[in-house]
Amino acid sequence: MAAVTVSRRRTNVAGGKKQRTYRISGNSGDTLNTRLRAIDSASVNDATITLAAPSGAPGALTLTFTASGAFTDVDVFVVGN
Question: What angle do CA 60, 63, 69 make, to 5 degrees?
Answer without folding.
Answer: 140
